Amino acid sequence: MSEYDVVIIGGGAAGLSAALTLGRARRTVLVVDGGAPRNAPAAHMYGFLSRDGESPAELLELGRAEVKSYGGEITTAVVAGIEREDKRFRVTLEGDRSVWGRRLLVATGLRDVLPEIPGLRERWARDVLHCPYCHGYEVRDQRLGVLGGGPMTAHYTQLIRQWSADVVLFAPAGSVPPADAAGYAARGIEVVEGAVTRTVVADDRLVGLEVDGRVVPVDAVFAAPRFEPNDALLRDLGCEVDADGWVVTDATGQTTVPGVWVAGNVANPRAQVIVAAGEGVAAAAMLNADLVAEEVADAVAA
């Protein structure tokens, strides 16, 4: 059975950045990648300095090569379970293969749960979008729809207005407070109340949303999904979660379970790719420091 200084679960920007840092620190590292990155539907990523407009797949390919160049190992597998034994963690992969890690970094990301509107999921990351900082510039000055209904609808809609003067809010009937309606009117935001029943597509492009039987034209739609962290492994290990259901960490990503760190969207829903990468680096530095402290204590005891 193989043993590593650190086993990293999740091979996205956070996990690979951590592996790169640890490899350069001469640590033995295994990255276990489930092979289903959150941003796989996106053709491009934006806002990553020096990588603006690059495809997420290309970033991961380059990252894997860099990790391997420092001796890091990467395997495509699904983690079936984790058990803590003394100071080590036994990570069982599907197929009954197991590896040991002195420390763990979990960077398994999150799931985007979209409104149940027929056709919406198929357009995700194409012309149905979430983050205006990631994709707003690419649809600037077009007719932009916003799917509302949540507590942050007014803030989100007014934010989208920064990228276009032609914005239409789709809101459930009777859900728009008068103060919000005044703000929309003041900035020229159209409000369409009613139930959105389907997306309308022509020539592989979104052209509108159907509301109570009529089609309202739009060129792109911003939808704020519900975020669900992929944190089952962390919960099984006993990591504490906060009142909102997110794993509790310190500033470096250390959880309440000794030896377990997190990075990226599994604990931070607002982490864009570049932020997730930075969190991976920060967690790696503290993981290495924790290992050094253990090695010093062992040496003194010996």
UniProtKB/TrEMBL annotation:
High-level lineage: Bacteria, Bacillati, Actinomycetota, Actinomycetes, Sporichthyales
Gene3D superfamilies attached to this UniProt entry: FAD/NAD(P)-binding domain
Catalytic reaction(s) noted: [thioredoxin]-dithiol + NADP(+) = [thioredoxin]-disulfide + NADPH + H(+)
Protein's organism: Sporichthya brevicatena
Annotated coiled-coil segments of the chain: none
Protein's name in the database: NAD(P)/FAD-dependent oxidoreductase
InterPro entries linked to this entry: FAD/NAD-bd_sf, FAD/NAD-binding_dom, Ferredoxin-NADP_redctase_2
SUPFAM superfamilies registered for this protein in UniProt: FAD/NAD(P)-binding domain
Entry keywords, A to Z: Flavoprotein, Oxidoreductase
Limits of the FAD/NAD(P)-binding domain: 4-280
